[in-house]
Amino acid sequence: MGILKKQLVAANAKNNVRLPGTAEDTMSIPTGFDFIDYACATVCETEDGEEFINAGLPYGKAYMFIGNSQAGKTTLAIQCANTLAAPYNGDVLVLDYERSSNNLGQRVRHITGASKEEFEDRFTVYNHVNMSTEFLKEIIFQIRDMKKKLKASDMVEHIDIHGNTVKMYPPTILIVDSIPAMKPKEVLEDSELDNNMVGGKMAAANSNLAKTIVALLEAYNITIFFINHITTKIVTNAYAPKKVQLPGLGVDCAPLTK
Questions:
Q1: What is the C-alpha to C-alpha distance for residues 51 and 45, in angstroms, rounded to an integer?
Q2: Which of 18, 68, 78, 218 has the maximal Cβ count within 10 Å?
Q3: What are the φ/ψ torsions at residue 148 (nearest 5 degrees)?
Q4: What is the maximum alpha-carbon separation in the chain?
Q5: For residue 98, is pLDDT > 60?
Q6: Phi/psi zone of residue 200: left (φ > 0), alpha (ψ -120 to 50 degrees), beta?
Q7: What is the DSSP string of the chain?
Q8: Which residues partner with 29 through β-bridges?
Q9: 92 with 81: CB under 8 angstroms?
Q10: pTM for the full model?
């Protein structure tokens, strides 16, 4: 045992307590997709020392669904979000930054098999044109403030990784579709920004968002599914010369052949 172990444990005992309502150390929820459940599985141990597999997605985390266009990323995210929310009458918020459909609600109902009443009770879809990176942050803080006002009777019972029954906030799952379409207010409102500046400001805004919200997720049982894309250049003929543009040359300069 380390020479300072006992003193450190004693000194920080008051900080090492489970906060009321937190999703910390709670059992994962199986999604029904084995490739997800076991990829995210952890080995846990009961208080009696018996090991078991905790398969599924833990509440209160941020996940990213990545794939090529039309690969089914959003469909999978909607299915997983519904599975995490359903056991405890949780909420699913779909932030459609891409404005991908005029009737996204109908698509969600088709994917989940939810009735009209179940959809209206569980799902909320946002797809207005002024959505920004800051809007996502505002939504998360609104959820925090609303959950702070919940009564003890509003908490739900779940099992922690040691097999004990614990109380936690009802789950809230956000689907953000997608990261490339999510832009800060500064970018949405400034038409003078060039492409290079836009990329830098988007990256800075996303980084600041992550730093701000990460501590709230487990504490208030908020789970986020981010959608992102793989962009690959399709080469139809590996032996054909590629036309390239050298950096620094004007747009009216003839492309070079590589």
A1: 4
A2: 78
A3: -60, -30
A4: 74
A5: yes
A6: alpha
A7: --TTHHHHHHHTGGGSSPPTB--TTBPPB--S-HHHHTTS-EEEE-TTS-EEEE-SBPSS-EEEEEESTTSSHHHHHHHHHHHHHGGGT-EEEEEETT---TTHHHHHHHHHT--HHHHHHHEEEE--TT--HHHHHHHHHHHHHHHHT--GGG-EEEEBTTS-EEEEPPPEEEEEE-GGG---HHHHH-TT--HHHHHHHHHHHHHHHHHHHHHHHHHTTEEEEEEEE------S-TTSPPEE--TTS-TTSPPEE-
A8: 57
A9: yes
A10: 0.86
For 184-197, how does the pLDDT look when each residue is reduced to its tens digit (9 = 90+)?
A: 999 999 988 887 78
Q: Are strands 42-45 and 51-54 parallel, antiparallel or unpaired?
A: antiparallel
Q: What is residue 233's predicted lDDT score, i.e. its pLDDT? A: 59
The two tokens of residue 111 are 């994917």
Question: In 3D, which of 192, 154, 149, 190 has the Cα closest to residue 171?
Answer: 154
The dihedral of CA 70, 72, 73, 75: what is its sign? positive
